[in-house]
Amino acid sequence: MKLFITKAFIMLILFTPLSHAQQCAPWQQWQTFKTHFMSDDGRIIDLGSEQNITTSEGQSYALFFALIANDKAAFDKVLNWTEEHLAEGDLSTRLPAWLWGVNNNVGNILDSNPASDSDLWIAYSLSQAAILWDDRRYRILAAVLAQRIMREETAYIKGLGLSLLPAPSGFEFDNERYKLNPSYSPLFIYQQFSKLYPHSPWQELQKSSANLILETSKQGVSPDWVMFDTNKGFYFDKKVTDLGSYNAIRVYLWASMMAEDAPYKKQLVTQFAPFIKTINERGYVPLNTYAQTGNSDKRGPVGFNAALLPLLATADNDNDAVTMSIQQKLMVDQSFSKSRYYDSVLNLFGSSTLDKRFLISADGTLQPNWSDECR
């Protein structure tokens, strides 16, 4: 039997904030994610991966989802597992390792190098949880992590300024060359940290990160990775191509989460207008884009569609039919939410942004859409 959904119905779904009852009710998509991807002790598992890996990325995103779901029990489980297994028992003394897995039924760290984007998300979620749940430990830990990120995962790059490195080691090369990732920098986190920690140069980091995103997406699409040479600027080569895919999809997502009056929001929406046009023409979000030409190919997975819905709604989009089609498919088929980690993460971010389950103010403050009565 065919499912017919009218345009009016879809638009109502897209732009109607959650009611009070919906705010206080459990967030069903988060409950599904916990059931299928989260262990009893708070580990987020990339199902089907070799060695059943856990990444600091997965742990950091789960902290954010637990916070906007008002799920403090899950938040603490995820935080405690992260601290015990990725940070040698103390997040205040070391940044978490990015990769953990199981070998011969024994779990251990597979790569101890931290990932700066995950560290940012952990620190941000802790800082906002400290405010929303009035927790002094979260506040102190967020401040310590923010300090460590600034000290261990940034570098002053001539011609670019203070910049976020993807990790403390492995991304600086001879002759003042650097490998950078535009998707590692949600600009609203820097904006919030510049408010919370005014004596650290977070505003400078935000400015250079915005420049990184805008300068590398002049054709309307972002690359996954880019090289920077202090003499010739941004460039691509055979190893670091202009391909944008599983990393770059987050650049558009983070932009859509920003307040309309946030710094750089209008510039980003304008910059990505060609990509929105491509999605409208094709009727889906492409898997691959190419930053030097703006070209794209192949069909992206369902998570890509979910991640772009908020930007489609934010932009001056002249093709509502595409937005409605994507939304309808997501409503009908949720099978990915039980087995595909990354698709599920992108869907949780995209759907909660679109549903206004939370807002992020211009200064980067998180405002979950649950009231005092729900606490």
Describe it:
By secondary structure, the protein is an alpha+beta fold. The chain has helices spanning 7-15, 20-24, 28-37, 56-68, 72-86, 116-132, 136-152, 187-196, 202-215, 249-257, 265-271, 273-282, 302-314, 320-332, 341-354, and strands at 54-55, 99-103, 106-111, 154-157, 161-164, 172-173, 177-180, 226-229, 233-235, 243-244, 286-290, 296-299, 358-360, 366-368. Strand 4 and strand 5 form a beta hairpin. Helix 3 (28-37) runs antiparallel to helix 15 and helix 8 runs antiparallel to helix 9. The radius of gyration is 20 Å and the shape is globular.
Low-confidence stretches: 1-15
Task: Count helical runs.
Answer: 15
Classify the beta-strand content into a percent band.
5-15%
**Cα separation of the termini:** 42 Å
Report the CATH C-level class of the domain at 28-153. Mainly Alpha
Largest sheet: 4 strands, antiparallel
Tell me the structural class. Answer: alpha+beta
Q: What is the general shape?
A: globular
- How many strands appear in the DSSP assignment? 14
What is the average of the pLDDT values?
92
SSE string, helices as H and strands as E: HHHEHHEEHHEEEEHHEEEHHHEEHHHEE
Radius of gyration: 20 Å
Q: What is the architecture of the domain at 28-153 at the second tier of CATH?
A: Alpha/alpha barrel
Helix content: 40-55%
Spatial strand order of the main sheet: 6-7-8-9
- The name of the CATH topology of the domain at 28-153 is Glycosyltransferase
